[in-house]
Amino acid sequence: MAYPRRLLNDHETVTVDLHPHWWFLAGPTVAVVASIGAAVATLTMTETDTTGQSIAGWASLAALAASTVWLVVRYARWLTTHFVITNRRLIFRSGLVTKRGIEIPLDRVNTVHFHQGVWGRVVGSGDLLIESGGESGQQRFTDIRQPDRVQRVIHAELDLGRQRSSGDAVVDVAGQLERLESMLIRGSLTPDEFERQKRRLLES
User: Which residues contact 137 (CB under 8 A, 6 or more apart)?
Assistant: First the structure.
């Protein structure tokens, strides 16, 4: 489910639209698999204690039902959570029934930090800490896919924004294209991200 385009402002384009990393779903998924295994093991028991077997069977079914509900609820949260970078702002939006969110104009962003633990580096998940000139000062976003790459995309958007505001964008189009191409070669940008930024640069 993509971020709704009706929520964008005029002349605003999306560079990055992310759901949380799949690790967000790992806990309930493991619980469902373990519950299924317990239910199968209970059904295949050959003990003579049918009362104990019945109790264990009902317990495993209850665990399976609870873990399935947990997975469905977590998946709904995953599906309706967006971390979005546009050419104007950072947007975080979450919630299916009740919604919450935050928007940070790019021109208010001061610094962007990312953190990945050992396991986060293995699976490609981490946190972003964004310091801005707003009232909140700092905002931490968790379960971000490839946070180091997202950090570089934010910096690229900040550079383009500064050039637009200073009036030098037209003069330095060739230089910006070279910089985007080098980021593509290094893997800092995906081909889709490169094409979006290239198109926006040329249109500006």
Answer: 131
- CB atoms under 10 Å from CB of 137, counted, come to 10
State which H helix or E strand residue 84 sits in: strand 82-86
Cα–Cα distance, 196 to 177 (Å, whole number) = 12
The pTM score is 0.72
Give yes or no: residues 72 and 121 share one domain.
Answer: no
Whether 71 is in a domain gets the answer yes
3-state secondary structure (DSSP) of residue 20: coil
One domain, residues 187 and 106: yes
Structural domains in the chain (count): 2
Cα angle value 120/124/130 (rounded, 5°): 80
Structure tokens at 11: 């002349």
Rounded CA separation 12/49 (Å): 67
What is the rounded distance in angstroms from the CA atom of residue 115 to the CA atom of residue 133?
Answer: 21
Consecutive 10-residue averages of pLDDT for the chain (204 residues): 81 87 93 89 66 74 92 93 91 86 89 91 92 78 91 86 62 67 69 79 70
Tokens 């077997």 identify what position? 53
Residue 85 lies in a domain: no
In the prediction, which pLDDT does 169 show?
46
